[in-house]
Design goal:
- Helix 5 crosses helix 8.
- The protein has a 5-stranded antiparallel sheet, with no helix packed on it. Strands 2-7-4-5 form a 4-stranded antiparallel sheet.
- The protein is globular.
- It is α+β, with helices and mostly antiparallel strands.
- The protein has 2 domains: 152 residues, Jelly Rolls, CATH 2.60.120; 101 residues, Orthogonal Bundle (Arc Repressor Mutant, subunit A), CATH 1.10.10.60.
- GO terms for molecular function: DNA-binding transcription factor activity; transcription cis-regulatory region binding.
- It comes from Vibrio ichthyoenteri ATCC 700023.
- This is AraC/XylS family transcriptional regulator.
- Keywords: DNA-binding, Transcription, Transcription regulation.
């Protein structure tokens, strides 16, 4: 089974949605098509709407408020699992202080719609890879590719997060994850510690992000808890509130 090149998530809302500490486990692009998103990023505030994209590299935490327009908020999030060629990234000048914003033009919009629609067509994996490269090439053309991919050196935490995100609710063991990443448990633990994180911490972050998507799809609170690997709904609710600043029920009330 081929690994997906990308994943598309739809976010809806009828009321204001304030969220903090939303973990981005892989490079992700958000396009707010109805309403707007107010983001706090490196001590500055940015507003995103139809005219611009929010582009975020892996390993970031986002704090934002989604605000509906005419009682409706809608955004598409595209998470990318295949990076562009390493030489493209090495040639791009990266600035750590860059705003995570790309102004949408007709060429970008065209390429974006193609990659969002390609999974619905009977296309070979190779063809889909080429279409994705075309999208990356357009971002590179305007000097924005580094916003999604700051460099070609993927951290261990990002590799682990991608692995865990394939099945967030499974009973994951660090030994199995280490084997998947071709290293020993001790090596994985040491490398994660060097990146100031841990296996358990990343697994929890992945499960909480997964919970947001399930609640968006109208899963009940109990079903969401079970799908995220929690046997206790109370424990799940506590962890959700610690992470995002509101309970699952409060989040459901905004949908």
């Amino acid at each position: 089974m081929n690994k997906p090149l990308l994943h598309i998530t739809h976010f809806q809302g009828k009321r204001e949605q304030p969220l903090h500490n939303v973990f981005i486990h892989a490079p992700t692009l958000y396009w707010v098509e109805q309403g707007h998103k107010q983001l706090w990023w490196q001590e500055q505030s940015y507003e995103f709407n139809r005219a611009n994209w929010l582009v975020v590299p892996a390993g970031q935490y986002l704090t934002f408020v989604n605000t509906p327009m005419q009682n409706s908020f809608h955004a598409r999030a595209v998470t990318f699992f295949q990076p562009p060629p390493a030489e493209w990234l090495n040639q791009e000048a990266s600035s750590g202080g860059s705003a995570p914003m790309v102004k949408v033009n007709d060429a970008l919009r065209y390429c974006f719609e193609i990659i969002c629609d390609m999974s619905n067509k009977d296309l070979s994996v190779h063809t889909q890879q080429q279409l994705l490269l075309a999208f990356y090439a357009e971002l590179r053309h305007i000097g924005a590719l580094h916003l999604l991919f700051p460099n070609d050196n993927q951290q261990v935490r990002d590799k682990l997060a991608t692995y865990l995100s394939a099945a967030p609710g499974d009973d994951h063991k660090i030994e199995v994850a280490a084997q998947h990443l071709a290293m020993s448990r001790a090596t994985l633990t040491r490398k994660l510690a060097a990146e100031e994180t841990s296996f358990r911490h990343i697994l929890t972050e992945i499960r909480m992000s997964h919970a947001l998507g399930l609640l968006q799809r109208k899963f009940s609170q109990m079903d969401t808890a079970l799908a995220c690997g929690y046997q206790s709904e109370v424990r799940f609710t506590q962890r959700f509130k610690e992470q995002f600043g509101l309970t699952p029920r409060q989040y459901q009330m905004t949908l």
